[in-house]
């Protein structure tokens, strides 16, 4: 178990509440303050690429933010300085290891993030259980000369307790039936301003093989909602965090198309629309109204 660097409010002596089947419109670090240790059955996520941090003359520099084919997101510059990127994702991974049993952390090797992720692999090597290669089937041409085309991404699998072993304590596949290279095409874009979409098949592969019905799945970078959409369809409970309001709306519409659920976006103190904490509720696909937040205490049995 990890104890170093955890905040005092994460003590098991403090009761926390978290709503299931909810997208929290806030940083995932804020959401995880609400989550007790070992509460989440599985995390699956794909953090931003930090695509707009580039290399020039051997030094990091921020690219001018103009929309081009490499632009993946809207409302987000995606160009943190490399140390800030490393510190942010180290803090996030530390918290994910606290709140969850197993983590599937999808990364792409690009200049703006590769040093940070390689450093994290070293720092958290005791919790790195395995690495899965996601083969997307074809590569887009590299943006610069003398650069390999990137056809694959990596899924880093972290586990709290038994990462020293390659055996999964909870899985649904039989011996010799699941490879470590997954040939899955790119995700279909569901929002014109978000082109880095998780393919539904990738999420389905993870949930089919490593979760059961009614398990709780968390995506700290919810984006346009692929994790919630697939989890709902597969009868898994889910939680998401997302800092882009438009992505939250897109995700909710998409998930509601999967099944009729009460779905919400909950605001943190800085982004709530008035003095009362409120959440967006879709009562019709084309209409949004405001309603008061109703907190629900967790009653899921947790292991020690």
Low-confidence stretches: 1-13, 69-73, 269-304
Give the strand tally: 13
Indicate the structural class. Answer: alpha/beta
Q: Roughly what percent helix?
A: 10-25%
CATH superfamily: Vaccinia Virus protein VP39
Number of helices: 6
Major beta-sheet overview: 11 strands, mixed
Using the CA coordinates, give the radius of gyration. Answer: 19 Å
Shape: globular
- The first-level CATH class is given as Alpha Beta
Order of helices and strands: EHEEEHEHEEEHEHEHEEE
- CATH structural architecture: 3-Layer(aba) Sandwich
CATH topology tier name: Rossmann fold
Separation of termini?
11 Å
Instruction: Count the domains.
Output: 1
Strand content: 15-25%
Averaging pLDDT over every residue, what do you get?
A: 77
Spatially, the strands of the biggest sheet line up as 8-6-7-5-2-9-10-1-11-12-13
Report on this structure.
- With 304 residues, this protein is of the alpha/beta class.
- It has one domain (21-292): Rossmann fold (3-Layer(aba) Sandwich), CATH 3.40.50.
- It has helices at residues 28-32, 82-99, 114-123, 200-210, 226-233, 245-258; strands at 22-25, 42-45, 53-56, 59-62, 102-107, 128-140, 150-159, 181-183, 216-219, 237-241, 264-267, 278-284, 287-292.
- Strands 8-6-7-5-2-9-10-1-11-12-13 form an eleven-stranded mixed sheet, with helices on one face. A two-stranded antiparallel ribbon has the order 3-4.
- α2 packs across α3 (114-123) and α5 (226-233) packs parallel to α6 (245-258).
- It is globular, with a radius of gyration of 19 Å.
- It starts with 21 loop residues before the first strand and ends in a 12-residue tail after the last strand.
